[in-house]
Amino acid sequence: MLKKILLGLAVVIVALFGVIATRPSTYTVQRSATFKASPDIAFALVNDFHQWGGWLPWNALDPSQKTTFEGAPMGVGARYGWSGNDQVGEGRMLIEESKPNELVRIQLEFIRPFASTTLTTFTFKPVAEGVEVTWGMSGEDNFMGKAFSLVVDRDAMLGKDFDKGLAAMKTLAEAEAGKRAEAEAAKLAAEKAAAPVEAPPAAEGGQAVAAPTP
User: What is the 3-state secondary structure (H, E, C) of 42-76?
Assistant: First the structure.
């Protein structure tokens, strides 16, 4: 009887390993949102790791996590590291490519709870409403990653966090766009108020012609 149980268990394990082995070796998660703001405003929120604290969805999971900023202040060569509780884990990011107002490509390395390296991209596309921001992540799955994908829908799990992060980024970007619009309107009003008043044309004999009264 025991031999039959062990044999049956072995068959199940072999079958499970076979199913896991057939899982895709790569994955991609992607979400987009449209902001009523110019591309440069949205780009600045991503190209500078110091700005991520205002919109990164996982920060709230451990407000006391330790963060580090190294390398370039922003753009290519900028590095960001974090270490926190079991929910946020530990990892680091490096901006590998940065095209102003078009693209930010980041190497994302998780250290714990599971070691892995992924590619994260942000693209910025001008649209009639302002800018469309697309946040994508892609990587390769090892055996453990494939097993994980059997029980967890990675697209749904990460997708909701991407949507949350983009919503927060949208709020910041549109607030900045509003400030710029107000500042531009105030500047134009000040320039108009400071503009010299044109004198009425002079009549024959050198006398100014009075402006007609209504």
Answer: HHHHHHCHHHHHHCCCCHHHCCCCEEEEEECCCCC
